[in-house]
Specification:
Helices cover 38% and strands 17% of the residues. The protein is an alpha/beta fold.
C-alpha cells in the first residue's frame, strides 16, 4: 500500500518482517534496518472439539482459509477450482474462517451455489482463538493465497506452519521466502489454473 514511503522519510530505524519488504524500504530510506521474522506463537493446549462437533464430514479431508477474507486471499479461485473438479470437491470440506466483507461474501455464496458446492464449502465467519485452534488442529491442508500481497508478514502462515500443516501459498512476498520443501507454492497471478492441481497432488498423496 502507498504511504509507507512517507512514514519512512523521517525514520531513524526500520524493522521489517521479510526480505522483500526490506528491499522496498531500502529504496526510500537510508535508515538502519533489521529483518525480524514473525515469531511462532506458542498457544496453550486446548481440549479441541471433535471433527463431528465442528460439523466436518468424517469421510472428507479438511481444507481451510483463515483470517480477514478479502478478495486478495483468492477464496473465489479456490471455489472455482473445486467447482471444475467435482471428484475432488466430493473428497474435501473447505472451511473459510474469518469475517468476509458483504459484497465479496455475496460473490462467494453465488459461486458456491453456481457450482453446487453447498455440501463442500462452509463460511464459518469470525471465531475465537480457541475455535481457530480447533479448526487448525483438524485441518489437513491450509490455503494461504495472495494477489496482491498487502502485508509485510503473515501471522496466519506462522500459525499454520507451527501447527505442522500442509500449506499452499502464492509464490510472492513473504510466502516466497519460505523454503520450497515446507509449503506448496503456486505462481503469483496463475492461481486459477494451479490451485486445482496443487490440491489434487496433496489430497491424492497423504505422505506428501
Amino acid at each position: 500500500f502507498p504511504l509507507f514511503e512517507d512514514v519512512l522519510d523521517t525514520a531513524t530505524g526500520v524493522v521489517v518482517h521479510a526480505d522483500f519488504m526490506a528491499r522496498l524500504a531500502a529504496d526510500v530510506t537510508e535508515a538502519p534496518m533489521r529483518t525480524i521474522r514473525l515469531p511462532a506463537i506458542e498457544r496453550p493446549a486446548i481440549d479441541a472439539p471433535t471433527r463431528e462437533q465442528l460439523g466436518i464430514p468424517a469421510d472428507r479431508l479438511l481444507l481451510i482459509t483463515i483470517g480477514h477474507v478479502n478478495p486478495n486471499k483468492l477464496v473465489h479461485e479456490v471455489i472455482e477450482a473445486l467447482g471444475a473438479r467435482p471428484d475432488l470437491a466430493a473428497r474435501v470440506f473447505y472451511a473459510v474462517i474469518g469475517p468476509v466483507p458483504g459484497a465479496y461474501a455475496d460473490e462467494l455464496r453465488s459461486a458456491v451455489a453456481r457450482h453446487g458446492l453447498e455440501t463442500t464449502v462452509r463460511f464459518v465467519g469470525p471465531c475465537s482463538d480457541s475455535e481457530l485452534q480447533a479448526w487448525l488442529h483438524h485441518a489437513d491442508v491450509c490455503l494461504n493465497l495472495r494477489r496482491p500481497v498487502t502485508e509485510g508478514g503473515s501471522a496466519s502462515l506462522s500459525d499454520e506452519l507451527t501447527s505442522g500443516k500442509a500449506v499452499i501459498v502464492s509464490n510472492v512476498g513473504v510466502y516466497a521466502e519460505i523454503p520450497d520443501d515446507c509449503v506448496r507454492k503456486i505462481d503469483g497471478g496463475r492461481g486459477a489454473e494451479q490451485i486445482g492441481p496443487a490440491l489434487e497432488a496433496l489430497v491424492n498423496d497423504g505422505g506428501l
